[in-house]
Amino acid sequence: MYFLGLGLILLAMKYLETGPVANWSWWLVMTPFALAVAWWAWADGTGYTKRKAMEREDARRKARVDKNKEAIGTLQAKKRR
Known about the structure:
Largest sheet: none
Number of helices: 4
Structural class: mainly alpha
Low-confidence stretches: none
Helix content: over 70%
Distance between the termini: 46 Å
Shape: elongated
């Protein structure tokens, strides 16, 4: 996501001809977009994206279970022992 944001900023600077980016080659300005595509291909290919999504779901599930246990008083009973 950072590569995409950087690419958009560089693209805007090149288009508006501001700063040192105005003198850069278009290939250099478009490089962050290629890096973003490579990152997404790697993340999807290795399962990184799915693994992170499962970790977030597990954390939400554990928080929900702990909240419900605390609401009925069973979580505090286990902590006292």
